[in-house]
Design a protein that fits this description.
Length: 100
Amino acid sequence: MLKLTVKPGEYVLVGNDIKVVFAGGSANNMRILIDAPKSMNIARSAALEKYKEAEEPGNMVHHYKDKDLSKEAKEKIRAIIMDDRKKSGKIYRSGAGALR
């Protein structure tokens, strides 16, 4: 096992086609981004434990990227979020939480 100390924005390459990027975090958690081929099975330990997959060698929980939302669906979601923000008095001018 390799132990590293990294700074936000740094990354680790695993082989030729897997990139793990450290995106920041706090004392109790960290955010990482994993760029890997779709054929690679990537699962959190919590998911494996929840489905008891870690107990059986060779068992895998497959997770795949959800299909992209249509432009119309994104617009409806954006309208709902903006309406909710107006009601709560929280209006954000930047695209920090905007759907793209």
